[in-house]
Prior knowledge:
385 residues; five-stranded antiparallel sheet; alpha+beta
Amino acid sequence: MDRHELNEMFDGLTPNPARERELLRKLLQDGARRNKPMKNWKRVVVGAAAAALLVTAAAAAVVPGLSQKLLDYLGIAPEDAQTVELLAPGAMAVDITKEDNGATLHVTQVLRDRTSIMVLADFTAPEGTSLRLGSTNPKVTYVSTGFSSKPGDFAFLDQNGEEIDGDSYAGDWKILEDDDPLDNHLSALFVSSNGELFMEKATSLRLPAGSLGYWDLDEDENFKFVEVYSGDWSVDVPLPKRDIGYAQHMDQVIGTLDDAALILKEVYISPMFLEIQLRREGGYDFGAPADDENEAAYGRWLSIGDNVQRITLTTGDGEVIPLEMSSFSGGSIAFEEKWSAHRLSRITDPARFQGGTLTLEWDFYNSDERGSVTISLDDLAPVEP
Length: 385
């Protein structure tokens, strides 16, 4: 399954606008500001998409402070010491071991920027155990593999070890390349994609690591989880404190839609990602009784991240750095704020974008409104000097 087909599959798991609107209205009636029960499907949909976008096959050298397995995953070439230096301040070596049912999970490294967290771990089962992960069904061209989890297994924690309440959690496991996929050992990467909220408040995360297995089709062609090795290796993992990105704060109106102002709040650029934060002011009260007009408006605001269809990011010396498709997003424009992250086509020093520009072009769903804006990045600065 190619990337386009994979995204279509994930899109099919997303509630339609009418269902989302009904969920929204219930939340507003209850006085809630965030939809935390949504964490389960977002963890699968958004996290798996982000993990798929990061996979590459380039080789890498052993670099002190950064695991070779992590460098391989990110596609960093052996001779690219400059790129390694960009990421190293956001990396942290850890040594956490959890044993269950005769098997061991050993967490060894964490890498983060504001938009994403990557946790590297090795899994070892008893000698003679085969950890084969994958479908034998010829109809299955893509199989999601990793450790199972249930609601509550994955959480961000504050300095007191208390779970942080807020935006939906998103994350999933990726099994890394293995020389012998049938032996008793494998390496895995947990990739979490979340907004600024957790990066500001969280000091650790509760890593979800239930039974090892993979998703496959059953006889009715419904996806099911196939357990390969049962157990629970969930652990709390500390997070690096250093943010390796650059940010530019602003409150600039970039357009209007349905009598509401669309405001660009902030641009964030790390060596790996561009993040755009948007805000809606005025316009429809989506908690009010529905009618045909504000139902259509809700659909437009719900899909606003998809409607910003063309993004051009240019360095200070005039080079355009291509972006991958939108890899994940969070918040809700109907709740007034939304953010979306886009992977840079190659790891780039964010300092290069100082004095550059960001151009957004949009074509709103079910609306005649189109527009574009170019933002100067003259004030882009390190988040942590």
